[in-house]
Design goal:
By secondary structure, the chain is mainly alpha-helical. It has helices spanning 3-29, 34-72. The longest helix has 39 residues, at 34-72. It is built from 2 helices and no strands. Helix content is 90%, strand content 0%. It has one domain (3-67).
């Protein structure tokens, strides 16, 4: 994997982690609503991870294409 692909993967994980921390902070600060906040938080984490998947996949495909071009040379 190239640096770009690794960076995209790390960015995807970091953004999902930050989203989880925001949900955790919301549930901590409002305990009466924690049973409602957590499902919304998990859906938000999934959406953020899904939004980061396409740039990761594009980068990975670009790496595979470049690897195939250099192997043919």
């Amino acid at each position: 994997m190239s640096r770009r692909t690794i960076a995209e993967f790390c960015y995807m994980l970091a953004s999902a982690g930050v989203t989880y921390l925001i949900a955790w902070g919301a549930a901590w600060s409002y305990p009466q609503g924690a049973h409602t906040i957590w499902p919304v938080g998990w859906v938000s984490v999934a959406v953020v991870a899904a939004l980061g998947f396409k740039p990761f996949l594009d980068s990975w495909r670009r790496d595979r294409t470049r690897a195939g071009e250099t192997a043919d040379d």
